[in-house]
Amino acid sequence: MGKKRIVIALGGNALGKNLPEQYLAVQETSRAIADLIEAGNEVIISHGNGPQVGMINNAMAAYSKTEPSHPAITPLSVCVAMSQAYIGYDLQNGIRAELIKRGIYKPVSTVLTQVTVDPYDEAFYTPVKVVGRVMSEEEAKEEEAKGNHVKAVEGGFRRIVASPHPVAIVEIDAIKALMDADQIVIACGGGGIPVMEQGYNLRGASAIIEKDLATGLLAKEIDADVMMILTSVDNVTLNFGTDKEEPIHHMTIDEAKAYMDQGQFEFASMLPKVSASVNFLEAGKGRKAIITSLDKAEESLTGEAGTTIE
């Protein structure tokens, strides 16, 4: 098969939904990643952070009620940074331990990664990402008075924020330097810390970047051979959720585009995965993108499992 540079995006069941679940999930995830490293591949890891950002946001909101000096809202950029750090902590320790068990001695490093977004991105006018706890109608009105957007959900209201496209990875040179030093790198967690350039400064944006799109940008920037998006299903499917559901084992770029145009993929789940894959593939030759589950990761590299796009 030969050595490949593989960017792995962890999502779905790979991290769990709370601290105890995450600790246990990381053990299994680390074994799957170690299998790829042991096979001689160079691995770079990104990950989602949906449940974790929600927990941090809720915890900070609760703390503000007992500590008046603390702001009522913690910026989302700060919440993402916190999630990157504690997810990275578990992942790097889990991967390190699994590698040492196998006699492989490679450092594992987490990079707190900022990703710039365009302040004029149209996504800021149509927020779609739900964050934070369920609020009462009164609390929702208070949020709207602060300039935030809210959405009616079962049991009350929740805040929604924009999901702009990633433009550039601020720490890309640091990531490349660690890779050149033969380290395993964890970067762009949760889509990256969303920031906007203001002169010499970077200002946190009230947004959540789609993890898969940031992973695609990372894969392009480091010239990866393979972008592997690990999710909760073994394959991409057509006619998802119907009695005509059909798993896809292989797609060309043109086929993937046609399926997207047909509306085959759900906006908040599979669509960004396929879209990120196409963007990555069109940026270079000899690449492939894989969408599959954690259990099928190693098999998918040889085309025995998962959905391959090339």
Secondary structure blueprint with pairings:
Layout: E1 5-10, H1 19-38, E2 42-47, H2 50-66, H3 76-101, E3 108-110, E4 114-117, E5 129-135, H4 137-145, E6 149-153, E7 156-161, E8 166-169, H5 172-180, E9 184-186, E10 193-198, E11 201-204, H6 211-221, E12 226-231, E13 236-238, E14 246-248, E15 250-251, H7 253-261, H8 270-282, E16 288-293, H9 297-300, E17 307-309
Parallel strand pairs: 1-2, 1-12, 2-9, 3-9, 4-10, 12-16, 15-17
Antiparallel strand pairs: 4-8, 5-7, 6-7, 10-11, 13-14, 16-17
Helix pairs in contact: 1-3, 2-3, 6-8, 7-8
The number of helical elements comes to 9
Distance between the termini: 16 Å
For the report, how would you describe the main beta sheet? Answer: 8 strands, mixed
Measured as a percent range, the helix fraction is 25-40%
Shape, principal axes of CA atoms: globular
- Helix-strand topology string: EHEHHEEEHEEEHEEEHEEEEHHEHE
What labels would you give this structure?
four-stranded mixed beta sheet, 25% strand, 310 residues, 17 strands
Report on the structure:
The chain has 310 residues and is of the alpha/beta class. The protein is 38% helix and 25% strand. The protein has 9 helices and 17 strands. It has an 8-stranded mixed beta sheet, with helices on both faces. A 4-stranded mixed beta sheet has the order 8-4-10-11. The longest helix has 26 residues, at 76-101. It is globular and about 60 Å long. The two termini are 16 Å apart.
